[in-house]
């Protein structure tokens, strides 16, 4: 259970929750979920694992969970601006950021567009070019229909939105976001990220491992971590992980990176 929650006051109000206990001088950890997810489905195992040692701010992006779909197509850039607005409303200084998949795209945009908002950055399973995805990904996404959305995602969204139509809107927002809203990042834009960065991917991810390594090589002084697992299980995502084993093996590396001295 969250100990505080609310909505931003932007044109598209973003739902947010606070979890955990402040830890010394460590900044809060901002959690940005992946496509099709809610706070609960993406971070339902990670939050309890960090609750005693870190303060966490989890956000639901456009059309996900308790956040409305709005009347505009989803955009990584606008999502980053909306998150930056929320951080300003909450009077937060630089925060650590963990973004997974689509949330990793938003996290990178936040670091580029609002560098003063980001203390440390973890980009998990997020591409910066279309050719970074495994064979068949784009064709499969183009052919996908709402019926292909895995049931755990539908159930998780319904549990918090209370609206069966919300999950279908979410599916179309996410599908269109990747098919038409995602374009290759210029290398100079990637290289403009100034926050200390850890790039993470799994060896059986939908993002090619060599692509994650390339992303890390373009960000100044970034580190890269390749873990055994699939797209999301190493973060404890409920739809991807059958147990907490992959998360338990990966979490010490994430915590070590976030806790390193400036």
Low confidence ranges:
none
Distance between the termini: 32 Å
Question: Helical content, roughly?
Answer: 25-40%
What is the element string, with H for helices and E for strands?
EEEHHEHEHEHHHHEHEH
Helix/strand structural class: alpha/beta
How much of the sequence lies in strands comes to: 15-25%
Number of helices, where a helix is a run of at least 4 consecutive DSSP H or I residues? 10
Query: Would you count the extended β strands for me?
Result: 8
The radius of gyration over CA amounts to 17 Å
- Mean of residue pLDDT values: 95
The biggest sheet amounts to: 8 strands, mixed
Shape by Cα distribution: globular
Strand order of the largest sheet: 1-2-4-3-5-6-7-8
Question: How would you describe the overall organization of this protein?
Answer:
By secondary structure, the chain is of the alpha/beta class. The chain is built from ten helices and eight strands. The chain has helices at 39-43, 46-50, 76-89, 102-113, 137-143, 151-161, 164-180, 187-191, 209-218, 245-259; strands at 4-7, 15-20, 29-32, 55-60, 95-100, 118-124, 197-204, 223-230. The chain has an eight-stranded mixed β-sheet, sandwiched between helices. Helix 3 packs across helix 4 and helix 6 packs across helix 7. The protein is globular and about 45 Å long. The mean pLDDT is 95.
